Amino acid sequence: MRARQTHTPTRAPRIGRRGFLTAGIAAAGLGLAGCGSGAATSSGRARLRQWNLFTGGDGARLMEMHEAFREEHPEIQLEDTTFMWGDPFYTKFVMGAAGGRAFDIATVHLSRLRGLGTGTLISPVPRDLLAEHGITEDTVPTTVWDKCLVDGELYAIPLDTHLVVTYYNRRICERAGVLEGDGTLVETNGEEELIDLLTEVKEATGQYGIVMETTGAWRQFWSLYRQLGGEMTFDGELVIDDDKALRCLDFLRRVSEEGLAPRASDAPGTPANFQNEIAGLMFGGNWELPTLRDAGMDFGMRPFPAVFGDPLGQGDSHAFVLPYRRTPDREAENAAVAYAAWMLRNSLTWAGGGHTPAYLPVTGSEDYQELEPQAGYREAAENVQFDPQAWFSGSAAQLQSDANSVFQAVHTGATTPEVALDRFKSAAQRLIDTPPPV
Amino acid sequence: MTAHADPAAPRKPRSGSPGAHTPETPRALPTRLRDSLTGLGFVAPFTLLFAAFLLWPMLAALWSSFTDRSLARSDSSFVGLANWQQLAGDPAVWQSLWVTVLFTLLSTPPLVVIALVMALLTNRVSGLGWFLRFSFFAPFLLPVAVVTLIWQWMYQPGFGLINAALARVGLSEVAWLTNENTVLLSVVITTVWWTVGFNFLLYLAALQGIPRQVHEAAALDGAGAWRRLFGITLPLLRRTTALVVMLQMVASLKLFDQAYLLTDGTGGPNYAARPIIGYIVDSGFTEMNIGYASAVSYLFFAVIIVAAIIQYRLFSRPGVES
């Protein structure tokens, strides 16, 4: 949440360094898009410049959807530009939006929405226009829809939700005797039941019960903290429930110290460890699905387990946003909303990447229910736990990076949960004391 | 042929040419002017690019350090010394600066010594020399993304090459990238493997420039291999060593890419491998606070200048003597 509103730039700026760069980036985008379509801009069609942050499998699925969109909409000239997600995307996003002529629609992580200048860089979505295309608050999960609202205005159109889930290796879990008759993982309730499960799986593998990204402990921490009902706010000073935070960190310490999970497992190492079968379970983002499937593993997916309460998992949502414009462009806006609505209605393709479509008629359809293992965590996805609200929190923002840097030492045993919590608190306070950039 | 003049015939000197015996007349000045204009013409493209892409950004950054410039706004306002005050009281600045300095202290000696040893050994080999030269230099040709990808897998606990080797010989595993005390060392090891080839090449070139007869004369006088190494080779390499050390320190102070990539952008456990450039990137790009990041950049700039001056003082004296 933006602690202070900054004024909207009203005067037309000189073409400064930023304007120059923006124009350059836009020109590069045009050039790239030109390679794809080969169409001239002067064809009389509505031009729709789309910026996105999807590479790899997600990127391929996006391009597949864009091809289908182009076939159905010859009147819209869709020009897509892909940037690497994280800083490479968000720096260009804010610079492009501040320059005012970069894109007509872009993807963002919903957790970053308020930090990216709603009202100054991002315009509200015309709800009536969106409703004409069949997207209303009734067709999107409430948790996600609410996250798109800032001061009652709709600022984003959510495409999906994605979150940390439990992966289980069927072969190992069967050997450990922890599968139900239908081949799904047994449900556990509470810390001790989960520890028992991990112990049984550990006996089956001879090494570990579960692997999780110890260098990305924020996901696990926030899932557990939210299960305890913990809140975190940054209004001038950090408000955090120390007891609850310590319980969560102590759980991370416990699984590593008792040898149920490796003390260290980084981003590339975690799915590799799971594939190498040093453990039968994995906590990981649902986006690992295509990789594991391509590896030919026999696995299933369940929500993040109920350790301290409901089976809630940390996650986020990819959403579409419209740029703030000094001079309104109805035509571009119409094309943008039509595009976003089409993407939502056709998001069954998108589900192939493990993300859960936000459009309820898709997830409610028979086609989706038959998707395995995606259907196994659909309910958790609708109740996804977004990061706490601040300009410095959310996907690829500094708070996650700080937490990951500090919390991994709890797994390795280098620091106690108490010390780690203190370090996290001072890192958060530093961010609170930093003036917001937007 | 017949149409041409006899080449042996004396040529009539062209007026104004430097070879002519004309005294220094006012005519010579325009020539000199023309020469310098031509010279300026040749350096102008570089000067323009230098001004546009180095001088101007440096001045702009200095100005930014006194403003609250953000990536996400088109306007900014003057905040005086606020960024500099914040910097002085920001422990993350000093901690990350220390990481950079520590990395430089840890990486420079092995990068110089190992390069020298490799060059000395390669210089003796005949026959397979080309293969050794290629092998030692090859890693330097790899892009940083490839290098870090390879080493991230080698450092993996459990199945990584290094830990598997340690386990096989009965040693305990090391949590290379996930232990606060070893993560920077891991970055040093990777960097040495990656960039030692460049220093190696400089040393090898210098070794090949040492005249053979100096060694032969010393050998005739009964000097052994070690005596010749310390009495002849190393003293004659002194200037190269000064150059290698200076280039290496500057390169080590610039630490960023491999540390950032090896730690997945987190800076390692408790920021143990986040150099000051990493902090500049975090505050300037992740937090979009260009004003503050510019101030930190200028602090780092000052540190590099001081390091360069100290080094110049230390190494210029022996150079003068020789």
UniProtKB/TrEMBL annotation, chain A:
InterPro entries noted in UniProt: Bact_solute-bd_prot1, SBP, TAT_signal
Segments crossing the lipid bilayer: none
Gene3D superfamilies recorded: Periplasmic binding protein-like II
PANTHER family: ARABINOSE-BINDING PROTEIN-RELATED (PTHR43649), BLR3389 PROTEIN (PTHR43649:SF14)
Protein name in UniProt: Extracellular solute-binding protein
Automatic annotation (TrEMBL), chain B:
PROSITE patterns given in the database record: ABC_TM1 (PS50928)
Protein's cellular compartments: Cell membrane
Keywords linked to the UniProt accession: Cell membrane, Membrane, Transmembrane, Transmembrane helix, Transport
Record's bilayer topology term: Multi-pass membrane protein
One GO cellular component, as annotated: plasma membrane
UniProt keyword Transmembrane, yes or no: yes
Stretches assigned to the ABC transmembrane type-1 domain: 97-311
Region annotation (Disordered) ranges: 1-29
Membrane-crossing residue ranges in chain numbering: 37-63, 97-122, 134-154, 183-205, 290-310
A GO BP annotation: transmembrane transport
PANTHER family (UniProt xref): ABC TRANSPORTER PERMEASE PROTEIN (PTHR30193), DIACETYLCHITOBIOSE UPTAKE SYSTEM PERMEASE PROTEIN NGCF (PTHR30193:SF41)
Family: Belongs to the binding-protein-dependent transport system permease family.
Name of the molecule in the record: Sugar ABC transporter permease
Organism: Halostreptopolyspora alba
